[in-house]
């Protein structure tokens, strides 16, 4: 397995437990490198310096929420091309469409099943195994 194929994912979520579950799931099931951030501000800094292949972004966060964070990512030429998936507890179909219209690649509903997470991410981003 060469270094070229290892995906690097940035997980931005204010809940430690959620970050840990996602990190463990993606590293164990897919062998991806997982970076984590506990806030939108921290996530923006990591995204700029580390240039992850994708970002998983929690919608509901204190201070800067997921949409505000996403808007900042989109406003920055360094990070605007990074595909972003929103994690959301309230993913109504109408809201999902609204997020897609904004440029989000997809949404994953909370609570998610850890074992299905990799599959969902691959489907949203069209990544083969």
UniProtKB/TrEMBL annotation:
Query: What processes in GO biological process is this protein linked to?
Result: phosphorelay signal transduction system
Sites where 4-aspartylphosphate occurs are at 58
Q: Which residues form the Response regulatory domain?
A: 8-125
Q: What is this protein called?
A: Response regulator
Q: Which Pfam families match?
A: Response_reg (PF00072)
Q: Which domain of life is it from?
A: Bacteria
Name the PANTHER family on file. CHEY SUBFAMILY, STRESS RESPONSE REGULATOR PROTEIN 1
Tell me if Lyase is a UniProt keyword of this record.
Answer: no
Is Phosphoprotein given among the entry's keywords? Answer: yes
Q: Which UniProt keywords apply?
A: Phosphoprotein
